[in-house]
Amino acid sequence: MPKNEKDLIARDATRDIGAELLQAVKQMKAGEAARSTKVAVSTASEARSKLGLSQSQFATALGVSIRTLQEWEQGRRLPTGAAKRLLNIAARHPEVLLEELAVQ
């Protein structure tokens, strides 16, 4: 049940906001945050970051549209078949894809 303004004022009168913030910072530094979010990095994002290429450059190197690459990186779609294999190679051996780009 939501508190009314009178209850909120009474609660806030007894709080030490500075001490609460300091305690929260100490907890965060100790790794005791109330919650943490872990984001899995897609193979496409990992490979592209290792190569240091823009989305446009990486999409061109793979022979896919920028939109397809964005869908893969954001996890809305998953690469399949040859594209999946090529992304795995690019993630493990980025120099191979860079060599291919130099030839073009």
Automatic annotation (TrEMBL):
UniProt cross-references to PROSITE patterns, sorted A to Z: HTH_CROC1
Alphabetically sorted, this entry's keywords are: DNA-binding, Transcription, Transcription regulation
- Can you name one GO molecular function term for this protein? DNA binding
Return the protein name: Transcriptional regulator, XRE family
Q: Which InterPro entries match?
A: Cro/C1-type_HTH, HTH-type_reg/antitoxin, Lambda_DNA-bd_dom_sf
What the entry lists under SUPFAM superfamilies is as follows: lambda repressor-like DNA-binding domains
Q: Does the keyword Transcription apply?
A: yes
Sequence ranges assigned to domain HTH cro/C1-type in this UniProt record? 46-80
Could you tell me which Pfam families the record lists for this protein? HTH_3 (PF01381)
Q: Does the keyword Transcription regulation apply?
A: yes
